[in-house]
Sequence to fold (185 residues):
Amino acid sequence: MKPRLLERYRSEIIKQIQEKFGIDNVMAVPRLEKIVVNMGVGEALSDQKIMDRAAEDLAIITGQKPILRRAKKAISNFKLRIGVAVGCKVTLRRAKMYEFMDRLINVCLPRIRDFNGVSRKSFDHDGNYTIGIKEQAIFPEIEAGRIQHTQGMDITFVIKGGDKEKNLELLRLLGMPFTNPRESE
Fold:
């Protein structure tokens, strides 16, 4: 069974973007290529168990085993050596990507206290969109009583085939709860 967000993209969103921007070719419509979930775990330098727990939480959240990110440079002021694990990340594609995005938009983001929407300004020069989340407890898969160390994460939506305006419209149509444009200025 295909994820409902993917079905909606194919049946409705492509047509809406084509009409709004006057795109003739379906292949020219921007599409979500992958979602990268990254956790930087600087505290793991002093205690490796923190890294293990963060990787375990990320695996539970995404449904996929994370890869460890290791330091490429030694920085003595931070007691950092080359090859020490400093973070973990997961790259989601295809069905898992759409299922994760659906859960994030409809379940997790509304659980954030005093949530007013995500910023419209978090696009990079390539048109990719990144959200920073302060704690993993917003995900229903994580038991709040089991958390020993609060861990934030960055979620990047890599979008292929569009500029910032088209990508913003794609994410809006997929259900991303953006702030009101007048409030963000």
